[in-house]
Structures are given as structure tokens and as C-alpha cells.
Amino acid sequence: MCRMLVVDQKEQSLLQEKTRMYVHLLGLPVELQYADSYASACRSVRYGMRIDILVARYDPEAEASVSEPLRSAQPWIKRVLITEKAAGREFETGKDLLLPSDMDPGTFYRAIEVLAPETARKAADVDRVNQWYSNNADRQDRILEVLRIIKEEYWDDLSLTYLASRVYTSPCYLSTLFHKFVGVSPLAYLNDYRMRQAVQLLLDTDSSVTAICRKVGYRNLPYFCTCFKNKYGTTPAQFREQFKLSAAV
User: Fold this and answer.
1) DSSP conformational letter for 20
2) What are the phi and psi torsion angles at 157 (to 5°)?
3) Which entry of 1, 195, 197, 236 is 20 to 30 Å from 243 by CA?
């Protein structure tokens, strides 16, 4: 199983969401993890999260401060770096690839083919996936809009009906379409996104579990704790304590 960490520091960007979509559409055997900053990514790697490929935006000014801590902790890490400028060349290290920000599933696949050949060989029919993706551009735009709404409004009381109304379709059709593109239902994705935000707040702030529960969109603390434990195998308070203990070692 290839382990991939996607870092996206831009609030308006959908790099994490697009990466998840492409992994699903291509049927790649990839375990995805996410971080909202390079500092968070370095911390995750330092405290035991094994990563094979890092997907992030190319930031020349941050290269030294980012790449050195990551590679000193896990020297085998390879990177897919996204840039607004023309891309496609390998870095001299042979471990990094530049890709354009408007990449499609086929472009993403070719990067995986270079950096993780065994993983790429297990992909679905790439040409068929890319053709389907191109033929469904209007539907793709709707899904990206739903993903953007979830990213910007996850803390609010979102419902399937509300999300469907924002992209001018029916709840049933949105649910079916979303599953085709992302692999889960819109509400399952929303809950997963909320859990990821809860983890960031637990590790990066001193906010109480009750406050974090409300900040990520849950109105019922026991339900929030149950959802968290089902996903991570521990309560939010225990999760934070375990991280503090590992950081102190």
C-alpha cells in the first residue's frame, strides 16, 4: 500500500480534494493522509507517520525548510509538486516531479507511474478514466463546487438537500454523482472532513474538546466523541494526550 500525504496551505485550493478524487477514479491502492501546513506535515512525519509520496504546492522559498526536515526523517519520500507554471520535468534528485495545477487524472497517473511503479500497475484503465473525466466536465464542476462548499462551510449545519440546492440538482442525483467521483456519499465526506479538522485543532490548539466539537460542526458532544473514536480508535482527549506523550519522547 502506497502512503500519500497531501499538503495544501491555500484555503481556496482544492488540491486535497482533487487528489482524493483522482485516487478513487483511478482505483489506486493508496492510503491518503492530509495536512493543512508544511509544519503539520513535518510534525506528522517526525512522530511516526510513514509517507512514500508527498503531494504539495511548489514553493521555492520554502524548499530548504520543508524538504530537509522531511527527508532527514524519512529519506525515501518522493514528491509530486504542483505549480501554476508550465511543468512536466523531473527534479535532478529523481525523487520529485512538477505537475501543472490543472492536471487531469491521466497526468496524475503518469506521476505515480514514475514515482511508484508498483502502485501505478494496479490502476484502472487510465485512458478510459481520463476520457470519462473529460466527457463529464460539467458534472465534475458540480462536484468540485460541493467539495468547495464543504471546505468553506463544514462547521455549519450542512444537509444533503442544502448541498444539492447549491449546485441546482436533486439530493438523489447529487449523492449518486458524488459517489462516482469521490467514492463516498457527500455526508460521509463531510463527516470525514470534520474529523480531519478536529485532529488539527486537537494538535495545534489548546481548545477544549467541547469547543472543538462545536467548531467542526457537531452539536452533540457524545456523538462527536463516538464518531472520533470510530475513526481513530481513541477519544479526542486520549488522542491529544497520546500525541503529547510521543512529542515528549
Assistant:
1) H
2) -85, 80
3) 1
